[in-house]
Specification:
mainly alpha; 9% strand
């Protein structure tokens, strides 16, 4: 039986079981939220303006654009 991870607090004992090799699944709510976040990230990456850390570098490389490919 898989451990089902959801959004929010995950007890340390659960992470211990994951580290020990337990099978893991995401809850339907977690999967839906991840999909929405992924769509937002793709939309931000496709915009012409700079979006820090999405289509630019980080820190000292913040002014360096990262090509879409």
């Amino acid at each position: 039986m898989s451990l089902v991870l959801d959004i929010g607090h995950v007890p340390r004992a659960t992470w211990r079981r994951v580290a020990e090799g337990a099978d893991v699944a995401l809850s339907p709510d977690a999967e839906a939220r991840i999909a929405r976040g992924h769509a937002a990230l793709l939309a931000a990456a496709g915009r012409p303006e700079a979006v820090y850390g999405v289509n630019t570098g980080f820190g000292k490389l913040a002014s360096v654009r990262v090509p879409p490919d």
